[in-house]
Every structure is written in structure tokens, then in C-alpha cells.
TrEMBL record:
Domain Helicase ATP-binding as annotated: residue spans: 362-517
Record field: compositional bias (Basic and acidic residues): 586-597
Native source organism of the sequence: Rubus argutus (Southern blackberry)
One GO term of the biological process aspect: nuclear-transcribed mRNA catabolic process, 3'-5' exonucleolytic nonsense-mediated decay
Keywords noted in UniProt: ATP-binding, Cytoplasm, Helicase, Hydrolase, Nucleotide-binding, RNA-binding
GO molecular-function terms, A-Z: ATP binding; hydrolase activity; RNA binding; RNA helicase activity
Identification of the protein by name: DExH-box ATP-dependent RNA helicase DExH11
UniProt superkingdom: Eukaryota
């Protein structure tokens, strides 16, 4: 190396030292030596870079280009948890487009007897393989339509788009909705026929305003023949043969799997010997004899011993029963015993021994089956979710974990972040959506399914945590919607607390998705619980090992009685001890009443107190005459007594459940002098709080709630409820999990949303207010909260304590709550407008399919196969024909009138005929209508004699039906003299006048002879006169059907004492003359004038009744001798027809419980323009589909009425807060005139929509509808927040807790995003910019502080 000349004759040389290539400067002598040898360097430097080898080049390429690694600048430790403002999908280097379908080689399944073994070595069967596309294996992962759908843009990959079609839900294979519905004219050829003969062409599609202009079409001469019978017979035959073929294959498959069929001989049957060819199969006459069972056809095809397989095809439903076992549970000890052999290569290893139910679940997950796991809290259900995540990572697919509460989602994100590639999707947070394991709320997953997100293609597992949340009235429907909408290729993992009907619920899921669900779990608690009562400073054990201990309860009861006796005798007045008894249970009720009456006074007192939710002023009254100061003193003493007791017994930490936010705050405030932490724990708490709250700006760090909670935390006391700020709640949760909080006052949300067990759980009371009324805790609620007692691995036993202050519950109530059966899973499915419009967007998906597959319709749909078989049997029954002797049968019409009259008969007879007004008309000579002996006909008659002391019945003469000539003629040779003795029931003919005796002549005048009152004829007395048969008989009041307004003259003496034929002839003739105007009976008495009826409903029925009697009398079946026989036959035919119609109705969509509600909602959507007459979703409906956070109809009408156009962004977002705010009772906000006008306008819109829904018979009250969906309590607060007012100042404007304010503003940001999307659909650019400005105005400071679970502390 040549020397370098430097200034002032300095020389140096530059060299490299070592493999790292560091520069080295070496000074040189200023005088150059002449000896060239001496000019050589003292040593030869090593090369700057190592010699390259194939291995080093390969390593360099792998590290640089092949191995995945994060950008060290973006993902540095200093930037952990940072949220970027730019769009992740636009800046991502890796495109999230779905991969193209791959081809795979799979074995083809063959029938066992067709397996060829001769060509393989050792006689081992080798399956044949074929190459197919992977998309064909997951056929249900395709779109809902028949055409393939191209993948959408990358920005819609996760969330989907309203323009996408949802994927086809699993289990809809047999649904008719998958077939494209065509109009009748297109199906039967009428449109083509009209076109060929020159008729108009169908050129305008449904819902289109205009169509194709095809010009003038001329007629085309053609011959139009339709062979309906031939096609139907052929199709029926083909359908029957295909059905037999499928059943035949299924029979062999089932028999081979279960090893229940033993083949004769060597068990080898060739295909030609066992199965007929296709040509031969067409010769089988299947339709010739439908009564032949299918078993006989199979027996001709197969020469096997059917064994127990007969039950599958004997028509008794055995086959259906076997196929319906969708939920599988039972003894599976062999899985636990052989677990390591069954699952040798686990996707995830655990550092502890798995429980039996965990091994079972993991085994089924490895087999690719869906699982339902039911176990107690802290039993280890999360292990199953972790293994599903591990399988998704192993299979290069995706898994989704859904939770009902955002807190659970954040916690799980923190727990899984170190183990898996995890992303988080909630309403306001989107972290790493490209991850393979996604954690999200159930509402987000529902939106992805409805909007057809392309990420659905990649999902292999969906994990539903806290499935028992399906019982929630408001949000339970979301679980059912998601389960129904999941495509078939997605497997389901359900994690739930112990429920009594887990098999039933799993059966519904399996039947809905058409896949088997494995049910497993355990009722054993990992940490056993003991339940105690705390009364008068002592603990009384009342339950252990799930069994109630009566001795402990009796001891507590005895102590209670002794104390009451001593108080009563020493304190003066026996009633004094009863006064506080209602205070403990009814205090909350009184407090609620006080809240509504105290008004602003309470608000100002609450605000001046400066506590975390500004409640509990010094002048408050709890509703029992005891002020809060006295209540606090008693509370403080009871809590101190309890905590000292627990501390002595080493039972801390403890979670105390109070069912009121105010109660939690007051209880924590009362423990002013309690300090439960050591100096090291205080230091730990202080450091943690400082780090957590350091992300808040100065004014937010000094919020009253933040300062007050820190003071409580330093003493080891915490509070946890919905009124806390989210960051404060997370600080409390994390410190409790670290064990430094000893006493935590919490509402029941802590048991649902936080996985933080304690040593002891205490119930302040066993009563709660559920939003409607005060009631006792349900066993399921008690079990959920009590399950937080006992830390696995730390405690041998968990303690649950029930506080008893002034009274002790009854033994039966305690038993019911503590050891009672958990709450059953019940369907909360209901129709929503957004659900209807999402499904109407896609032709192949119907709302009826969603209704059928809901859990509410599960039992009805489960019985459909049985009803189908019953219907087929009834239709196959031979029909009986009615033979009419008078020509064309009219008995059906007569029977319908008779049935209708029968419905009114009892009411008319009791209310009208037996009334005093009607009885006074039943005098001799009154024309009446009577029942016949068979009661299927009615006869014209006349009252002959009224009841007397000797005879309590009316004596009535009635005209009997005429006999046909074929029956009358043979009697003509009878003895004429016998005709006088009218005891015979046979027919009679008229005696000629020349042969009549003198006494038989017609009498023209009524005899004036006074009778003796003796009845000389034998009743019933029958005879014939004037060519008509008659009968005299005694009747009761109930035998009168109608009283006519006609009256005739009769001769009682000659009729009843002399039995004169002439008198009977004259009476019969008069009766016949009363018929007029073509009617068989005279008009009936007027119900108002004559019978004095005042009930208009009864008068209407009376007119209908008399008209039916007249119509029945005009019918030709009236009086027929075969009437009774034909009526029985008509009744049987009618009953059979009604049963068939009832079965058809039960199997139809009209029988669905919510079908009337659906029809009403469809009419409303048509009325407001969301859909048209053809049920095609319009632009207004598409906008409504975007509204998830508020009531969709009100939000849509607000946009289309341009109610936000004249408002500034701050005013618009303030008005929109009414859509998402949930608290009912708040202080009245002070609004600007512009906001007040906008509020009134929006409220009137809601009232109009409520009235419209009530008009279409939906059970909605307009006022309640408006108040339920629009709550304006935070309009002023949000307006000030959007204008930049500090959070501490806006909290002074209302009595709403800070936590509720933050939750509302966070949800409001999501509403702004929905309105922005709606504005994009509408093409309203001004509204789009306004929503963007409003969203930016509210996203700041403490409201949008990042979650500690997500970013870490």
C-alpha cells in the first residue's frame, strides 16, 4: 500500500482488521526507505469478507428473502401497542387476496362389496384416487348463488361489503330456497305459448321500470301439446328409483361401519351379482303398487339377513331416528385412557395433565368434528379454544374466537398474544386483522357473514365462548343468527357453563348445520365450594359438595330467633325488630322510587360528593325512613366485621357482589379506615397506577373518579361496575389478578366478563333488579358468580358467603338458589328489519329458512318427518263415497251448515230459549222447531200442552220426514183399523173420504167441550195425517231450537184425550200451511221486540242461527231417511280432510310462530320504500342494512329526510348519540334552540314509524317505541365534547356515570362510520364529509385511550 502524503509531511496508511472490516490507521516514517523488502507490511491482513461457499450463499438467501421477519423500525419495542392512523390494507405489502383453489388427490369411497382385493398384494384393498379441486371438497364454502363470485377488493376482505352475497349457510342442502324460484308462466310454458301465438313478450323483469324493446312479434303456426301425466309418471318413477339407490348405498355404508350385517357365504359379492344394472332397474315397476314396502324391493336386490336394519325401512321412523342423532354424548373413557396413542402428534402441548373432558374435546377436534363443552367456571374450557387455535395455525387456516362482552375479547387477546398469531376486531379497534387467529365480538362475526367477507373462506374453526349468553333477551338472537349463517366448511366449538339441556341445544345445532356435534364436559368443580351464611358475626355452613346441610341453616335460624327475642324484650316494642327486615330487600325498590321523586336535588347532591359515579348525597333517603348516614354506619360495621372474620381465617381476597352501582360505591366509601395492603404492595400498586394513567393527559389524570379509585386501591379495596371509566376498570382487574386487591365490590358483570378467581365470594343480597322488577337470583346466575370462588392450584376449597343482616331467607328459597337446577337455554330469536333486508338481498336465501332453523322452532321442525309419514299414510287411505238416493250428493253442504249451527247451539239454547221471555211464548198452539231424535235434523212442530204439576214436560206434536215411495208402498195392504192405533212407527197412507167413519171426518171447529186434563195416548204417539207422519211426545226446554212467530188453533181434548184422527189431520194441515215464501218454517220471533235481548253480539248470533235452520230445511238432505248414515260418513270425510289440511299447514311456512310478525314487517318495509312489491331491496333498504348500532328504521328515515343537513358536525353527532345511549332515567339536558328543534323533529319521526308499525298489527306502542330507541340524555354532553370541552367539565353536565359516557361516545364513533357508509351509498358527499369531521371531533383523550390489555402496561 502506497503511503499517503499528509500535511506537515505526516504519512499514514489505511488497513482493515479482522473479519468485521474495521478501518485502521498506521503512522509511517516520513523518510522513505530504499529497501523494497523493508517496505513490505509487517503481516498480511485477513480478507475483509469471508470466503463465499454454497452453504453461506444459501443461508444468506434464506435469511434475506425467505424467512419472515418484522420491520425492526415499525415493530420496535418502543412502539408496542401503537395504533397507526393509516389504512393497514392499503399500506400492507402482503395482499390479502384469497388463494386460488388447489388440486388435491383424494381416495374415492366405494361400497364394501365392490372393493377389489385380487389385484393387490396380500389381498389388501387399495382405494382408487382422483384429482379434484379443493373448492369441491368444501362445497358449502361457495357463495349463496349458483354462479361463482370473484373475490372482492382487499379492503373488504375482513369486514365484507353490502354489495357482496353472503356465503351459503350450512345445512340448507334440502332447502327449496336454493332453487331459483321461477314464475308459474315460465315453468308451465304459458309465456312461450302466448309468444308463439302472437301475444306480448315478457320483456320487463320484476322490479324493473323498463325492459327490452323486442319490436313487433308475429305469430308462428305451431302445435301445442302438454303431456302432463307422462312426465309426472316418469319423473316420479325416476325419483323413486334414485331414492332406492341412495337408500341401498346408505344401507351398505351404515352396515359396514357399524358391523351389524353379516353376509352369507364368504362375504364377497360382486357388483353384477348384488346389484342390478341401470337398464334392469328401469324395468322395476315401482309405482304399480304403492302399498308394497320398500323392504321387499331391497330383499329382491340383496340376499342378506337384514337383522336390525329392518327397523330402518319398516316405515316406523327407525331410519329417521338413527339419522337424527346429531348430538352425540356418552361414555368415552377409552379416549382418556388411550389419549396419547390416539393423538400422537398434538398441535399444542400443555405443561399440565389434561382433564378427561379436555382430552375428549381435543380428540374430536383432531378428527375435525364440532364440539360442545359444558363445564363450570375455571374448569379449563379455554384449553379447548387454545387447541383450536393451534390446529388453525397447523393447518394454515384461520380460527375465530367470539365473546359476548368486549372485556372478554380484550382479555383473551392479551392471553393468546404470546402463544399464537392473534388479531382483534371489535367495534372501535382493529388490530392485525390479517392474523390467523382472530378475536372478535359476536356482532362483528354476524356482520361479516351477512356482508359476505372473503375471509370466511379461510376460517376452519369458530369458537363461541359463554354460549349460555344466548338466554340474553336483547342480544341472544345474535348467537342463533351466527350459528344458522355459518357455512358448512366451518367447524364449531361451543364453550358454556353447565346447563341442563346442553344435548338439546347441541341437537339443534347439529340438525341445523347437518353435522354431528360431540357433547362433552364435566359437572365436577376444579375447586370444591362450601356455602355459608354470615349472620351476627358468625359463619354457618349450609351447603357442601352440592348437598344442603339443614343443621347449619337451623343453627343460623336459632341465632336469629334468639337475637330477635332479646331485642324485642329489651328494646321495647315487638314491632321494632321487624322494621329493618324489609330494608335489606326493599331498600333498592325504595331507592328507585326516591330517584324518580327527588329530581334535581339528588343530582346536585350527587355531583357535589365527587365520587366516581356521583351518587349517594348526605341527604338521600333509602326509602325506609333511614338516611344514608345511618345506613353507611351499619354497612361499615357489617363489612368490617365480615372482613376481619375472613382475614383471620385467611379467606382473602374476596369479591363482594352488590347488584347496584350505587351500592358498590357506598360500600367502598364506608370502609374509610380499612387498610389491607403491606408497604410493598402499596408500592406495587402506586407504580402500576402511575404507569397505567401516564397515558392520560394532565386534566384527565386528576378526574375525581381516577383520584378516588387510586386512594381505594392503595388500601387494597377496589370497585368494579359499568359506571367506571374503561381504563379504570382495567386497572382494577389487573391489580386484582395480581393479588394486591383484597376486597373488591363488584356488580355481576365481573363474573361474566373477567377471568379473575378469588378465595372467597360474598353476596350482599340474593335479590336483584332485572330492569323490570325485583326478583330473587336464578340458580344459574348464582352458580356463575359463585364459581369465581376458589383459585385452581392455590386453594383446596372455595368459600361462598351470603350476607344476612336483618332476616334469613327461607330454607326452600336458599335450596332453590344454591343447589337448584341451572337455567335452561331458551331461544330469544326475534325478527329484525336488518335481518330481513340482508336475507332479501339474496334470492337463494329466504327469511322462512332462518325462522325454521331457529332454536324456537327446533321441536316443531324435528317432528316434520313424522308428520310427513303420517300425511302420506292418510293420503293413501281409500276415500269413502256418499251414495245419495236423491241424485247429486249435497250432504257436505248440509254438514257444514250443521257444524256451524252446532257452534252457536249451546249459547242460543241457554241464553235465549231458556229465558223467561222465551218461556212465556211456549203456550199451546205455538209453532216451534224441534230437535230430531238423532239431533242431526230439526222438525216443525206445535206446542199441544204446557207443563203441569203432574207432567213437567211440554207436549209437542212434530212432523216427521216423508218416507220414499219404495218404503211406503208395501204397507198399503196393512189393516186400516190398525192405523187408528198410532202406536206403530211405520209409515201410513191417507184413507179415502168415502171409507172414513163419522168420527174420522175433518172437524171444522174447535170443540167447546172441556177436557179432564188426562192424557189417554201413550207417548210417544205416532201416526199419519194429510199424507205426513207425525209424532206426539214430551220434550224438555233444551229440545226447542227455535220459536216461530206463528200460532195455530188446536183441540187439546180431541188430540190428547180422544185421539181423534180428524183433529190430528186438521192440526197437521194447519202446520203445513204455516210454510210460506219457499221456507219450510215460519219466521222466528224477533230477538229484540219479542225476546227482549239487549246483547248485540247475542242478537247477531240469533239471526245467524235462525238463518242456518232455514237453509238446512231447504237442503234436499233435510228429512232424508239416510241423513244420519250420510252425516256420519260426511263427518268422517270432513275429519280426514281437516287432519290432512292441519298436517299440511303444520309442515308449511305459515305455521311458523313468527310468520305473522314477518308479514307485518314486510308490509312496513314496503310502505316506507325499503323494498318494492316484488320484495327487491331498494337503495333505502341498502342504507338500512348499514345501520347496526341504532334502530335501523329511525336512522334510515333520519337520513332520507335530510334531518342532519342543517346541523353542524358537532350538532349532528350530538343528535346521533340518542341512537346509542342506553340509560333510561337521566337529568334533562340543556340544548340549543337548533338542537331542540332537531330533537323534536327526530322524535316525531320515531312516533310516525311506531304508529305505522301499530297500524300493521305489530305489538308496538308508538310512545314506548320512540322512548325505547331514542334517549336524548347525553346530547348536551356529546355536543360539548365534540366542541373540545375537557372530560372533567362535561361530567358536570349530567348525572350519567363516566363509564357510560365513554361507552356511548365510543359506540358513537361506530355510528358515524355507518352513517358515512350510508352517505356513500346515497351519493351524499356533504354528509360523508360531515360524518368524517364529526368522527374526528370525538376521537380524543381519555374516551379513546387504548386498552391496557391490548397495549400492555
Amino acid at each position: 500500500m502506497d503511503p499517503i502524503e499528509a500535511a506537515k509531511e505526516l504519512s499514514f496508511r489505511v488497513g482493515f482488521s479482522g473479519h468485521s472490516g474495521h478501518l485502521r490507521l498506521e503512522p509511517l516514517c516520513t523518510v522513505e526507505r530504499s529497501d523494497p523488502v523493508k517496505s513490505l507490511p509487517d503481516f498480511v491482513l485477513p480478507p475483509a469478507f469471508a470466503r463465499e461457499t454454497p452453504e453461506s450463499i444459501k443461508e444468506y438467501i434464506e435469511e434475506t428473502y425467505l424467512l419472515p421477519r418484522l420491520d425492526s423500525d415499525v415493530f420496535s419495542p418502543e412502539k408496542v401497542g401503537r395504533q397507526w392512523d393509516f389504512d393497514w390494507f392499503d399500506k400492507a405489502n402482503v395482499h390479502l387476496e384469497p388463494s386460488l383453489p388447489r388440486s388435491v388427490v383424494i381416495p374415492t369411497w366405494e361400497l364394501p362389496f365392490r372393493c377389489q382385493k385380487s389385484g393387490s398384494e396380500g389381498g389388501i384393498w387399495e382405494p382408487k384416487s382422483v384429482q379434484v379441486d379443493e373448492i369441491e371438497l368444501t362445497v358449502e364454502a361457495q357463495e349463496s348463488g349458483s354462479l361463482p363470485r370473484m373475490a372482492g377488493p382487499a379492503k373488504d376482505f375482513v369486514r365484507g361489503s353490502i354489495s357482496n352475497r353472503p356465503f351459503r349457510p350450512g345445512g340448507l342442502d334440502d332447502s327449496q330456497s336454493l332453487e331459483r324460484s321461477l314464475p308459474a308462466g315460465a315453468s308451465n310454458g304459458e309465456w312461450v305459448h302466448q309468444l308463439l301465438i302472437g301475444g306480448p313478450a315478457q320483456s320487463v323483469p320484476p322490479s324493473f321500470k323498463q325492459g327490452l324493446d323486442l319490436g313487433y312479434l308475429q305469430a308462428y303456426p305451431c302445435l301445442w301439446n302438454v303431456y302432463k301425466d307422462h312426465s309426472s309418471v316418469k319423473s316420479a318413477s325416476d325419483e323413486k328409483l334414485s331414492e332406492l339407490s341412495v337408500q341401498f348405498d346408505d344401507l351398505f355404508k351404515k352396515a359396514w361401519e357399524e358391523d351389524v350385517v353379516e353376509f352369507e357365504g364368504d362375504g364377497q359379492l360382486s357388483g353384477s351379482e348384488s346389484v342390478k344394472s341401470e337398464d334392469e332397474a328401469t324395468v322395476v315397476d315401482v309405482t304399480s303398487n304403492p302399498c308394497v314396502p320398500e323392504l321387499s324391493v331391497l330383499d329382491e336386490i340383496l340376499s342378506v339377513e337384514a337383522g336390525d336394519s329392518k327397523s330402518r325401512f319398516d316405515g316406523t321412523g327407525g331410519e329417521q331416528h338413527l339419522k337424527e342423532a346429531w348430538a352425540i354424548s356418552g361414555s368415552t373413557e377409552w379416549i382418556s385412557e388411550n389419549f396419547h396413542d390416539l393423538v400422537p402428534n398434538k398441535a399444542l402441548d400443555f405443561p399440565f395433565e389434561l382433564d378427561t373432558f379436555q382430552k375428549e374435546a381435543i380428540y374430536y377436534l383432531e378428527k375435525g368434528e364440532s364440539v360442545f363443552v359444558a363445564a363450570h367456571t375455571s374448569a379449563g374450557k379455554t384449553v379447548v379454544a387454545e387447541y383450536a387455535f393451534a390446529l388453525a395455525s397447523k393447518h394454515c387456516t384461520r380460527a375465530v374466537y367470539t365473546a359476548p362482552i368486549k372485556t372478554i375479547s380484550n382479555q383473551k387477546y392479551r392471553d393468546f398474544c404470546g402463544k399464537f398469531d392473534v388479531g382483534l376486531l371489535t367495534g372501535d379497534v382493529s388490530l392485525r386483522p390479517e392474523a390467523s387467529c382472530l378475536i372478535m365480538t359476536t356482532e362483528i362475526l354476524r356482520s361479516m357473514l351477512y356482508r359476505g367477507a372473503d375471509i370466511i373462506r379461510d376460517i376452519e374453526w369458530v369458537i363461541f365462548d359463554e354460549v349460555h349468553y344466548v338466554n340474553d333477551v336483547e342480544r341472544g338472537v345474535v348467537w342463533e343468527e351466527v350459528i344458522i349463517m355459518l357455512p358448512r366448511h366451518i367447524n364449531i366449538v361451543l364453550l358454556s357453563a353447565t346447563v341442563p339441556n346442553k344435548v338439546e341445544f347441541a341437537d339443534w345445532i347439529g340438525r341445523t348445520k347437518q353435522k354431528q356435534i360431540r357433547v362433552t364436559g364435566t359437572t365436577k368443580r376444579p375447586v370444591p365450594l362450601e356455602h355459608c351464611l354470615f349472620y351476627s358475626g358468625e359463619l354457618y355452613k349450609i351447603c357442601e359438595s352440592e348437598s344442603f346441610i339443614p343443621q347449619g341453616f337451623k343453627a343460623a335460624k336459632d341465632t336469629f330467633k334468639k337475637k330477635n327475642i332479646s331485642v324485642a324484650t329489651g328494646g321495647g316494642g315487638g314491632g321494632g325488630s321487624r322494621a329493618p327486615a324489609s330494608a335489606s330487600h326493599d331498600g333498592a325498590r325504595g331507592q328507585k322510587r326516591e330517584t324518580s321523586h327527588s329530581g334535581k336535588q339528588k343530582q346536585s347532591a350527587a355531583q357535589s360528593s365527587g365520587n366516581l359515579s356521583r351518587t349517594g348525597g348526605a341527604n338521600q333517603n333509602n326509602g325506609n325512613g333511614v338516611n344514608n348516614w345511618g345506613l353507611r354506619r351499619s354497612d361499615a360495621s357489617s363489612w368490617l366485621l365480615l372482613i376481619n372474620k375472613l382475614s383471620k381465617k385467611s379467606l382473602l381476597p374476596v369479591v363482594i357482589f352488590c347488584f347496584s352501582k350505587n351500592r358498590c360505591d357506598r360500600s367502598a366509601d364506608s370502609m374509610t379506615r380499612t387498610d389491607l395492603t403491606s408497604s410493598s404492595e402499596k408500592s406495587q400498586i402506586r407504580v402500576f397506577c402511575d404507569k397505567a394513567f401516564s397515558r392520560l393527559k394532565g386534566s384527565d389524570r386528576n378526574l375525581p373518579q381516577v383520584v378516588r379509585v387510586q386512594n381505594l386501591l392503595h388500601r387494597g379495596i377496589g370497585v368494579h361496575h359499568a359506571g367506571l371509566l374503561p381504563i379504570v376498570k382495567e386497572v382494577v382487574e389487573m391489580l386484582f389478578c395480581r393479588g394486591v386487591i383484597k376486597v373488591l365490590f363488584s356488580t355481576e358483570t365481573f363474573a361474566m366478563g373477567v377471568n379473575a378467581p378469588a378465595r372467597t365470594v360474598v353476596f350482599d343480597t340474593l335479590r336483584k333488579f332485572d330492569g323490570k322488577e325485583f326478583r330473587q337470583l336464578l340458580p344459574g346466575e348464582y352458580t356463575q358468580m359463585a364459581g369465581r370462588a376458589g383459585r385452581r392450584g392455590l386453594d383446596k376449597i372455595g368459600t361462598v358467603i351470603v350476607m344476612c343482616r336483618d332476616e334469613i331467607l327461607e330454607e326452600k328459597d336458599l335450596k332453590h338458589v344454591i343447589v337448584g337446577s341451572a337455567t335452561r337455554l331458551e331461544s330469544q330469536f326475534r325478527l329484525t328489519y336488518i335481518m330481513i333486508m340482508h336475507l332479501l338481498r339474496v334470492e337463494e336465501l329466504k327469511v322462512e329458512d332462518m325462522l325454521k332453523r331457529s332454536f324456537a322452532e327446533f321441536h316443531a321442525q324435528k317432528k316434520l318427518p313424522e308428520k310427513q309419514q303420517l300425511l302420506m299414510r292418510k293420503l293413501a287411505q281409500p276415500t269413502k263415497s256418499i251414495e245419495c238416493i236423491k241424485g247429486e250428493p249435497a250432504i257436505e253442504e248440509y254438514y257444514d251448515m250443521y257444524s256451524e249451527a252446532k257452534e252457536h247451539e249451546m249459547e242460543i239454547l241457554e241464553a235465549v230459549m231458556q229465558s223467561s221471555a222465551a218461556q212465556q211464548f211456549l203456550t199451546p198452539g205455538r209453532v216451534v222447531v224441534m230437535k230430531s231424535q238423532s239431533a242431526k235434523d230439526h222438525l216443525l212442530g206445535v206446542v199441544v200442552k204446557s207443563p203441569s204439576s203432574s207432567n213437567k214436560q211440554h207436549i209437542v206434536l212434530v212432523l216427521k220426514p216423508e218416507l220414499p215411495a219404495t218404503i211406503q208402498t208395501p204397507l198399503a195392504s196393512g189393516n186400516l183399523q190398525d192405523s187408528k192405533n198410532t202406536d206403530s212407527s211405520q209409515g201410513f197412507y191417507m184413507v179415502p173420504k168415502s171409507k172414513r167413519a163419522l168420527e174420522e171426518e175433518y172437524c171444522t171447529s174447535v170443540s167447546s167441550r172441556k177436557g179432564s186434563g188426562v192424557i189417554n195416548i201413550k207417548l210417544p204417539h205416532q201416526g199419519a195425517a194429510a199424507g205426513v207422519r207425525y209424532e206426539v211426545r214430551g220434550v224438555d226446554n233444551t229440545d226447542f231450537l227455535c220459536i216461530c212467530n206463528s200460532k195455530i188453533k188446536i183441540d187439546q181434548v180431541r188430540l190428547l184425550e180422544d185421539s181423534s184422527s180428524a183433529a190430528y189431520s186438521r192440526t197437521v194441515q194447519q202446520l203445513l200451511n204455516t210454510k210460506s215464501d219457499g221456507n219450510n218454517f215460519p219466521p222466528a220471533l224477533d230477538p229484540v221486540k219479542d225476546l227482549k235481548l239487549k246483547d248485540m253480539h247475542l242478537v247477531e248470533k240469533y239471526y245467524k242461527w235462525t238463518n242456518l235452520l232455514q237453509k238446512m230445511a231447504k237442503n234436499k238432505c233435510h228429512g232424508c231417511i239416510k241423513l244420519e248414515e250420510n252425516m256420519d260418513l260426511a263427518r268422517e270425510i270432513k275429519r280426514h280432510s281437516e287432519e290432512v289440511n292441519a298436517l299440511r299447514f303444520q309442515m308449511s311456512d305459515e305455521a311458523l310462530k313468527q310468520m305473522p310478525d314477518f308479514q307485518g314487517r314486510i308490509d312496513i318495509l314496503k310502505e316506507i320504500g325499503c323494498i318494492d312489491a316484488d320484495l327487491v331491496v331498494q337503495i333505502k333498504g341498502r342504507v338500512a342494512c348499514e345501520m347496526n348500532s341504532g334502530e335501523e328504521l329511525i336512522c334510515t328515515e333520519c337520513l332520507f329526510e335530510n334531518q342532519l343537513d342543517d346541523l353542524e358536525p358537532e350538532e349532528a353527532v350530538a343528535l346521533m348519540s340518542s341512537f346509542v345511549f342506553q340509560q333510561k332515567n337521566t337529568s334533562e339536558p340543556s340544548l340549543t334552540p337548533k338542537l331542540s328543534m332537531a330533537k323534536e323533529r327526530l322524535y316525531n319521526t320515531a312516533i310516525k314509524l311506531g304508529e305505522l308499525q301499530a297500524y300493521f298489527n305489530l305489538p308496538i306502542n308508538p310512545e314506548e317505541y320512540a322512548k325505547e330507541n331514542l334517549k336524548f340524555g347525553l346530547v348536551e354532553v356529546v355536543y360539548e365534547w365534540a366542541k373540545g370541552t375537557p372530560f372533567a367539565d362535561i361530567c358536570e353536565l349530567t348525572d350519567v356515570p363516566e363509564g357510560m359516557i365513554v361507552r356511548t361516545i365510543v359506540r358513537l364513533d361506530e355510528t358515524c362510520r355507518e352513517f358515512k357508509n350510508a352517505a356513500s351509498i346515497m351519493g351524499n358527499s356533504a354528509l360523508y364529509k360531515k360524518m368524517e369531521t364529526a368522527s374526528n371531533a370525538i376521537k380524543r383523550d381519555i374516551v379513546f385511550a387504548a386498552s391496557l390489555y391490548v397495549t400492555g402496561v
